[in-house]
Specification:
- The chain is an alpha+beta fold.
- The protein contains 2 helices and 4 strands, in the order ββββαα.
Length: about 90
């Protein structure tokens, strides 16, 4: 994902803007792996292989979200890992 996209992305659920970015793996202006989070509704949107997964809850892949959280739990906020929406590690 290009860093400049942050200027136009909003939460698909509540339209909150701006989203917070946590970079996990970046290369110059490209964010390879990371997460976007909404301070208002407490949802997170993973960035996997440069693609932000910004789908509504019912279209999210639970297995993919759990794998993402498990892989990066040491670098993500504890609140996101334990109680983030739509899926979390419990």
């Amino acid at each position: 994902m290009q860093r400049r996209l942050l200027d136009i992305l909003a939460c698909p659920i509540d339209k909150h803007y701006p989203l917070q970015l946590i970079e996990l793996n970046a290369s110059g202006e490209k964010i390879v792996d990371g997460v976007l989070s909404c301070d208002q509704c407490k949802r997170y949107y993973p960035i996997i292989d440069e693609i932000p997964v910004m789908l509504p809850d019912e279209l999210r892949n639970k297995k993919e979200d759990i794998e993402f959280l498990t892989r990066w739990k040491g670098k993500l906020p504890a609140e996101m890992v334990s109680s983030g929406l739509p899926h979390h590690l419990s």
